[in-house]
Amino acid sequence: DHTMIAPIFMLFCLGLPCLGAKLLRCRFLSFLGDVSYSAYLLHIIFVILIHYGGRNWDSIVGTLFGYVIFTYVTAYFCYRYFETPMRRIVRNFFMNGCNSVKGGKNE
Q1: Residue 82, pLDDT score
Q2: What pLDDT was estimated at residue 81?
Q3: What is the pLDDT of residues 25-41, one digit of tens each?
Q4: Contacts with 55 (C-beta within 8 Å, 6 or more apart), sequence order
Q5: Which of 22, 78, 102, 107 pairs as cysteine with 38 (C-beta 3.0–4.6 A)?
Q6: Which of helix, strand or coil describes residue 26?
Q7: Mind giving me the DSSP string for 57-88?
Q8: With contact defined as beta carbons under 8 Å apart, do 67 and 50 qualify?
Q9: CB of 78 within 8 A of CB of 38?
């Protein structure tokens, strides 16, 4: 019966802002959002390594689990030790001008 689709859709839309606010405060989802760009850039490298590394595909679940864990651990380190410092450097460069990179001296 299609008569319940509209009321269920309305309830879903009305409840979405509350659910969305709770999801945005979730620390785990915030972490995934922070490292997602690094994971996006790194995952293809790991796919290629697994594909051409002669991996035995008999245990596909273990391989995929290991792949996801390895990708996100590596993405975290890239985020923590590359993205965050580079973001700070770029922000300081544009906020303070070129002098902050040259040591603050006017030439």
Answers
A1: 93
A2: 95
A3: 778 888 888 899 999 99
A4: 63
A5: 78
A6: coil
A7: GGGHHHHHHHHHHHHHHHHHHHIIIIIHHHHH
A8: yes
A9: yes
Q: Which position has the token pair 């651990």?
A: 73
Q: Is 54 left (phi over 0), alpha (psi -120 to 50) or beta?
A: left
Q: Which two tokens stand for residue 86?
A: 């580079």
Query: Could you tell me the pTM of the whole model?
Result: 0.61
CB 22 within 8 A of CB 63: no
The pLDDT tens digits for 54-87 are 666 566 777 778 888 989 999 999 999 999 999 9
**In 10 A of CB 75, how many CB atoms?**
22
- Is residue 107 very low, low, confident or very high in pLDDT (cuts 50, 70, 90)? very low
Alpha carbons 39 and 75: distance in angstroms, whole number: 5
Amino acid at 106: N
Look up residue 100 and give its amino acid: S
What is the C-alpha end-to-end distance of the chain, expressed in Å? 77
